[in-house]
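Re: beginner question about structure tokens

> Can someone show what the tokenized structure looks like for a real chain? I only ever see the sequence side.

Sure, here's an example I had lying around. Input first:
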Amino acid sequence: MRMVPLVCALGLLTIAGTASAQPAPRVRIASGRIEGTVAPSGVRLFLGLPYAAPPVGRRRWKPPQPVAAWRGVRDASRFGPRCMQLPIFSDMVFRSNGMSEDCLDLNVWVPPSPAKGRMAKRLPVLLYFFGGGFVAGDGSEYRYDGESLARRGIVVVTANYRLGVFGFLALPALAAESPHRASGDYGLLDQAAALRWVRRNIAAFGGDPDRVTIGGESAGSIAVCALMASPLSRRLIAGAIGESGGMIRPTFAPVPLDSAERVGEAFARAVGAASLTALRAMPAESLLAATSDRRFPASVDGWFLPASPADIFATGEQAHVPLLVGWNSQEGDWSALLGTEEPTPQNWAAKVRTLFGDRADEALRLFPGDAPVQVMASGTLLAGARFIAYSTWKWAELQGGVGAVYRYLYVHPRPAPIVPGSMPPPPGAVHSAEIEYALGNLATNKVYAWTAQDDSVSAAMESYFADFVKTGNPNGAGLPTWPAAFAADTVRTIVLDVNPHAESAPREDAYQFLDRFYLSSADPER
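And the corresponding structure tokens:
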């Protein structure tokens, strides 16, 4: 078995600093006994637990395989390695033990003094998947730490999954060796395997296998949408949380399998691999280095995804569970559309006509640009919608017919940075800004000078999330009412800020226009 060694000095000090004087907790799971550690708060931590066999050698580009049982007691006091990835995002701060293909681990935070005995009430569970565009990220990141939610009576799990070429390479040769004739989507299969692991083992930590909510942000949110759709996972879910992103066009819809396989074949040619055997023999570092300018999309592989999530949701075959879902007010920026061009009315009108063709006049009414300030506002709304907000909106719409949907718009901007002279944060809530607020981890982010207002926003948002994990409904004592989105004639959304409040869905007309356009467009990337 792979024992978890010491991590770098920073990580060691961080984990060691959380340890309490309580005896190290031990738990027996299906594959053997483990020994974790205890935070000063009393929360028990079990880190770096393998949920699948190492996906190396002949298991590279295979569905996750079962973990081999071990003898003795396995150390579970340190995070395992993060999955293979390039250093793309500067806001990712890891506590992982380096980087490796052998990375299919998860981490468990257990509330203090869990009830014991056969009659004890089992606790709700949150399985959370990190973001990072399916090319980066790790369950050890500070912003995903589960201790705060665990103190609220939730068993929290974060799980790693294969990324980039290791998680999504599709090839005809891989499909030929699959009994399902499928290839690609290994990272999504990893997530389904982590969900099955939770189902099988979480009772040992006091969790209820029948009350598992899955959640995630960005790529993690897109994955939650896919897991709700997949026949391999949808029956294992009690609820779902999606923060900014659904596996729905225009940006994140899975491609047909043959398209994904053509991408894989082009990559194999680029690295000079004449066979699947040759690809599996290449060092992981060499494969990773060759991916800096390549993207490996998820695909309708015929197994994990027998159809696109949008089609599965449209036919009502997805998980019929409560969904808490939303996006941020500044998911994109006007410059993503205009580039280096000035935000003038002329430039804006020309761009909109390029994007929407004979429907440009209608688009300009909904995204007007009569002055530079209006161009910037409309451009920011449209760029964010095209990037990720529309797919999240559509996911909520599709789920509304089968389950309770609680929709949010997160608008609270970050405060000023701590370091004097740093660039001020954008005026809106940018992509990923809500994570530390929702999971109760503001203190782990040392970049910003958090204020009492930030603490207030975090307390409310974390309470909403915790109540949803516990009951399938975010409403709880002392919180402003969060209405179900589709329970009345008017679609309702809660605006998350210093004073959370419900509104008729903001800019519903713009999203409805985009919906009509994408449904009628032969080119959804326009």
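Each token stands for a local structural state, so reading them left to right follows the chain. Confidence is low (pLDDT under 50) at residues 1-17.
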